[in-house]
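Supplementary Methods, section 5.1.

A reviewer requested that the exact input to the structure prediction be made available. We therefore reproduce it here, unchanged from the version used in the analyses.
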Amino acid sequence: SDQIIRELQREGNNIRPRRQVVSVIFSDIRGFSAMAETMEPEDLGDMLNHRYFSPLDNIIYESNGTLDKHIGDNIMGVFGAPVAYEDDAVRAVMSALQMREAMKIMNERVGREGREISIGIGISTGEVIAGIFGSSRKKEYTVLGPTVNLDSRLERLAKVNQILICEDTYRHVQQCVRAEKIALPPMRGIERRLDVYSVLEAM
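The structure derived from this sequence is encoded token-by-token as follows.
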């Protein structure tokens, strides 16, 4: 991303592995495997590239987030690394609301003849290890740690068009959005009890 390039051009200190508090966002298409099995490759590629990746990537970019990677149909973004701001969690959640609205508008434009794209989004806030990782063949700037693992689980648990956030994220955004606490089954690999909220709308 442009953020990483700028940091490299400056001095590179911000991209050396270090502990940092960030907000991580994951977005995933619901029912994607079934789509992939029934759609022609060109149609699937066009849908992903133009109706999903491009608009949602742009929202992360324009909100000053770092687009981390695409994992299949999953989009991973980071707010707070390599450059941190006081409102990282707020911008992550507002981006999620924009992403959900963008998909709604896109589906309305496509109409009945096209395939609707339904997404689920998860956002977690906490400490990660951020930096460049990889081998001599491939390196990338990314974030690692329990916060990322938690967010991945939140995204998987999110229902169609639902935005789930952890309690640490909620503490940062409770004055900006309306959200409701929801009951979830214990999450595998997460030992402590967590409060999870579903974001309804901006206030």
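The radius of gyration is 17 Å. These observations are discussed further in the main text.
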